[in-house]
Prior knowledge:
- There is one protein chain.
- By secondary structure, the protein is an alpha/beta fold.
- Helix content is 31%, strand content 29%.
- The protein contains six helices and ten strands, in the order E-E-E-H-E-E-E-H-H-H-E-H-E-H-E-E.
- The chain has helices at residues 44-52, 94-105, 110-119, 135-147, 165-180, 192-198, and strands at 4-15, 18-29, 33-37, 59-64, 67-68, 79-82, 153-157, 184-188, 201-206, 209-212.
- The strands form two sheets. It has a six-stranded mixed beta sheet with strand order 6-7-8-3-9-10. Strands 2-1-4-5 form a four-stranded antiparallel beta sheet, covered by helices on one side.
- Helix 2 (94-105) packs across helix 3 and helix 3 (110-119) crosses helix 4 (135-147).
- The longest helix is centred in the last third of the chain and has 16 residues, at 165-180.
- The protein is globular, with a radius of gyration of 17 Å.
- The mean pLDDT is 93.
Amino acid sequence: MEDIAIRIEHVYKKFNGDVVLNDINHNFERGKIHGVVGNNGSGKTVLFKCICGFMFPSKGRIFIDYEQVGVDIDFPDDMGIIIETPGFLPNISGFKNLQILASLKRKIGNREIRKAIQQVGLDPDIKKHVGQYSLGMRQRLGIAQAIMEDPAYLILDEPFNGLDKNGVREMRIIIKELCAKGKTILLASHNVIDIEELCDTVCEIDRGILTVIR
C-alpha cells in the first residue's frame, strides 16, 4: 500500500482569469524523488508554491501528512525549499545568513549550519559577503539552507541553476543520499538527465494540466 506524503485534490489556480493550474490531482509517495517537468510558464513553480503554502489554490485542497495546507497548517513546518533564485542578505556572509534563517525556528545551532554549508562544498568560515558570491555559490548556499534543519520534505525548483558540471554531480549525490535517509523530494529541472538519473516518478505540467509520465 502506498504511503502518501503529499495529496493534491482538484487544485485550480487562476490569475486575472487565466488558469495556471487546471484540476491537478496527484499523490506523491513518501521517501521517493518525484520529478516535475514543464516549460517556463507551465505551472510547475506555482504548484510548488501552493504545496509550500506561499500561495493558496483558487479551488481544491493540498494535504501534507493528512493536514490541509491553509486550513490545518499555514506553512508545512518540516520542509526545506528552493523556489526561484534563493534570496539572501548581500552584505553579510553565507554563514551569517543561515544563522538568521535558523533563528526563526530555533531548531538547530551553529554546528548544524556549518555541517550543511560544508556538505554543499562551501567553506563556513569564508568572510566574503554573499553579494560577492558567484551564481553557483549562491545556489549551493540555497541548497544548504534547504537541508540544514534536516527536513522530511524537500521542494527543489531548478536546484542546479548556475552550477558547473562538478557542482551538478555533487548535488545529485547529496539528493540521492537524502532520499536514502527517507526524505520525500519534489524536483523540477529542465535537464532531462537530472530527471532520468534522480527521479523515481515523473510528472509533466503543460498549460496547467498534470500528466503522469512514469
